Amino acid sequence: MAENLRLARLYLVILAIVAALRWAMGFFGVPYERATDKVSIVILTLFSSLFYGAFGRRWRGLGILPAVGLAMTLGFISQLVVLLSTVASYVLGLHTYFNYPTALNQPSPVPFGLALGIRLGGLVANTLTNGIAGALGWAMGALLPPAREPSAP
Question: Which residues, other chains included, contact 106 with Cβ-Cβ below 8 Å and sequence gap of 6+?
Fold first, then answer.
């Protein structure tokens, strides 16, 4: 786990930026439908899982199971951010991108308990989905060129 977190440092910085942008979009009243696709944590995480799987295979020598584990770590952390942001939105009584009905796959606002259940389901489903993306990325990693040896100064 410690190695996964070490490798994920760049991803965690980008995740923090995207999460902050999602919060900011809500605070500044940008309509959900207008901006959610531009600052999507789910899309960020899926692409990152693919890339980390591919690059981890080719340039770090990761086997398929460590690549899947790394991708699942990314997925779990991302969904934990979404879950905690949703909880904060409800507890603080804020209308944000995290408790917007469409974000919860609902036609209208839902109570906290239902939102929490939806987010817990997303935590499980998206963690598994990112594991699959990591495996696909690992398979595609064979297409990358081998890592270069550092040149002497």
Answer: 114, 118
**Per-position DSSP letters for the chain, written without gaps between them:** -HHHHHHTHHHHHHHHHHHHHHHHHHHTT--HHHHTTTS-HHHHHHHHHHHHHHHHHHHH---HHHHHHHHHHHHHHHHHHHHHHHHHHHHTT---TTS-GGGGT-SS---HHHHHHHHHHHHHHHHHHHHHHHHHHHHHGGGSPPPPPPPP-
Residue ranges of domains in the chain: 2-143
Q: State how far the Cα of 53 lies from the Cα of 71, in Å rounded to an integer.
A: 7
Mean pLDDT by runs of 10 across the 153 residues of the chain is: 86 97 94 92 97 94 96 97 98 95 95 97 97 98 83 67
pTM confidence score: 0.90
